[in-house]
Amino acid sequence: MAFSSMETQTFLPMGILLSGLIGGLSVALFFAFYLRRKRNEVKTAVAQLPPENTNNDRASRPSIHAKNKSHSHSKPHVSAADKGRRHHPLDLNTLKGHGDAVTWLCFTSDGRSLATACADRVVRVFKLDDASSKSFKFLRINMPSGSHPVAVAFCKEASKLVVGAHNISGSSLYMYAEESRKPSEEANQQSKLPLPELKWEKDQVHDKKGILTLFGTSATYGSADGSTIVASCSEDIKLWQGENGKFLGAMDTNQLKNNMAVLSPNGRFVAAAAFTADVKSAVTWLCFTSDSERILTASKDGSMRIWNINVRYHLDEDPKCLKVFPIPLQNEKGLVLHYDRMALSPDDKVIAVTHGCMLQWLSFETGEILDTADKSHDGDITCMAWAPQPLATESGLATILATASNDKKVKFWTAPKFPSY
User: The whole model's pTM is what?
Assistant: First the structure.
């Protein structure tokens, strides 16, 4: 009984194993036949497809690509990938490397350095020895934990930079300056940019409100000593001494909402663009001429105005409107659009204006459109500024406009030429 039982247990698994092998082989043969038949069907279907006509495909592409190609500039500092993207003859160069949207930028008084504020919590200061260069040396300033830079302004000395930032407690101002070095250290690190040091900090400068704009200038009017005044704009406007952070005063515009505030180049005036009770008369942006005697405004009523502000205020004279231009920008329905921001060239001849990602150049004297880049960036333009002095490029000195955008890029543009009549 015991032996018979062991014999039965020995042969039963072998029978099961043999049946399993035969069944698995049958299944494998079935799937092999099935897959071979499907492969032949696919080959037959592909063979019946008409051949590609690459010439027809290219011809059917929108004509804008051909237009872009004819207007692009091929320069040695631009990569092959960038050549396809460049579409405007004034497009000179692109600063890349920002990790997020670029919210603000500003030049030093000589134009040789450019500072940018980025949503990646880093402030970068680029050295612009050649605006058309393939690469630029830059100084990296990492903001304190929890602070996000939104605006930057240089002091009179290019080595000092004021940064406006947002954080959980509201808004703060920081002033960074080059780290002092010993003569021996300078000899060893001539090729390196100096490291920044935090010199002063002001917290909750506008209570819990954020900073809208930040502009600085050297005060030279009257008995001013040339020190830097910085204006930070929120629901109110506050003035600061750039070098030491001393609070100079605050102003209330008594308007519904401030858009921005700027100082005149000589430090005499502070002007604010704001919304009033009459929405149509709301000023969206403004800028001073280089002599601080005129101001340019753009309003939601579809007009641009040039004002003479060098009047006898002690006799209660009001600024005088010198010229009125219609804003030459309309949507598909024919409605006039407003400009988001403006910047006047150092020679007071060209107005750069933006609406979304569109960049336009106008004549300051006539309001005539000099040139337009409909899609200057892949996102809305967040800030722009002219270099105060002509910058070196591979083609010689040029007047340069810098634009920043949500697309993580900063672009350099050359000034347009005036038409000859």
Answer: 0.77
